[in-house]
Amino acid sequence: LARNDLSNVVIVQKGLWRDERELRFHDALGMSSKVADDEDAADATGLSGIPVTDLGGELRRLGVDAVDFIKADIEGAEFAFVEGARATLTEWRPRLAIASYHIVDGAETWPRLEAMLRDLGYCVETGFPEHTTTYAWSEGEPAAT
Prior knowledge:
Elements: E1 15-16, E2 21-26, E3 34-35, H1 38-42, E4 47-53, H2 55-62, E5 69-72, H3 78-92, E6 95-99, E7 103-104, E8 107-108, H4 110-119, E9 122-127, E10 133-138
Parallel strand pairs: 1-4, 5-6
Antiparallel strand pairs: 2-3, 2-4, 6-10, 7-8, 9-10
């Protein structure tokens, strides 16, 4: 940030989730590192604590009063993010680009993510096979390109 003289960026060292808490993260698995499930949590070896928050709560703390666009690549936390951002997404209707190639419970996240966003009244399209991404926008706006 300093090198590029950026003063309009705030780094928040938290993950996005459905609520505010600390999650355990299994960080010793290289490219397969992940939020620890109950089985992983039973063995605390290789786990670190990660603070997480919901989008609306963090935006209020930062004094942000509008959001136009959200880009998220959150390694399988897509469902928890949308659950925690429901009020923000409904009120402000930002456009979305969410990486949705992750595997949760044995399935890619994009089909369920599309359904969640449609339930919130978004138009939805998943594409970009090199890095599957789900795009969402409000009805009446131009489609994602």
